[in-house]
Specification:
Elements: H1 5-18, H2 22-29, H3 33-44, H4 51-58, H5 61-74, E1 75-76, E2 79-80, E3 90-92, E4 100-102, E5 104-106, E6 113-116, E7 124-126, E8 131-132, E9 135-137, H6 138-151, H7 154-161, H8 175-186, H9 190-201
Antiparallel strand pairs: 1-2, 3-9, 4-7, 5-6, 7-8
Helix pairs in contact: 1-5, 2-3, 3-4, 6-9, 7-8
Amino acid sequence: MKYHAENAVSSFFYYMWNAWSKEECKVVFGGDYLHFWEKWNAQAENSIYGAAERFYTELSECSRTLLVERAVSLYDGKAFRKRSDDSEVYVCCECGSQQIEIQVWADANTEEYHSDVEDACNGKWCIECESHIHFCSKAEFIQKMQVWWQSCDSMTMQRITGLKECDYSLDDNSQAFVNTANEWWNNRDYDEKRNIYKEYNNE
């Protein structure tokens, strides 16, 4: 991600002041987030003033980049960036990942974008699938997962949710179980649903 240094500094501080949390730490650092959250708490417990600067200096170059890129993705200086609507976000149509790339024509000297490579599929790549794929909107993939979920039989729902149909009344043709399973599914976030969808559609 390219950004102006001055803007990135402002974005970083406004992000740390207004958005930084344990949940954000998990978004930035993934499975290692507890290590970084402990590091943050060690800097913040004595005084919150200057904690962001102290935390930053404790990070490796790679970790600093992850943190700053997250900050810049959410803040444009002191202003919160408008989040794209799901219909405006492209994902891999096979796995739903946003880690996708597209070949483009660009000026070799200035790197100024000119146009996409006119190829229906071969110019599009999913890092997660490690293959050439087609894109769809995130909204379309969400709908695709929802249609799949609604097509699941009770045995599949039990395997996924850990719920047992026999624990629910049979007087309503298992509707109570289905309602609870649907509530469980609807409480999952996008990536949780995507991981479940991938697991049960790659069998």
